[in-house]
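note to self: dont lose this again. the chain is below, predicted strucutre after it. 219 aa total, dont forget to put it in the shared folder this time
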Amino acid sequence: MRTVGASDNEQSVRDVNEVQLGPCDPYLGCPPPSEIVCIKVDKVYYECKNIQVNEDVFTFSPEPEHPVFDVSCHNVELCCEPCCEVVRPGLVSVTFRYKVTIRLFFPTTCESACKDLCQVVTVTKLFNIPRAGEDGLHVQCYVPFLECLNAFISAVDPETGEVTIIACVGKYILIKLKATVQLMVPAYGFCPEPPDCDEVFGICPDFRPEWPPYPPQIR
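---
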């Protein structure tokens, strides 16, 4: 049986150092790993998403001589991180708040051609999440996407002139059931020292005046 010598070890180290980050070769694949390591990570046991559009209602009473002629959904932002709670085994409650701002436009004869209206909306939803509530498993929820899609005038009271406006807000809720575990994974050893960053020494243009700073001599 052939024993592994120092030259083989040196060759193995050299091969590992040549491993590059990024996708593997589509034909040759990835090089074989050099070791099996134990790492501590958050493993996702279950995940799901919920995508819906809220129709948030605003009301506004304009002055008779300055009616609202157009509206837009101006902005929406999350007020705080969403809260997840296991109500009972397998049932999860998600609660979060967001602030939506709509913009009202008036005739240009007004002193102010537009006006913003804001309101805070609380969203609470229930989801069936398998294994939620088991020992060692914890639920995390996120709202990675929140977008003002549209706003429009839905009704105008003929007697009072009050305007009812609908703001359409798109919500993307993501729920993950996680546990912190130790996994065995193939590896290539420790990562090599990273390359030097491409430093920017200045954003001003170079200053290279012509020399001598005199007009050409006339002969």
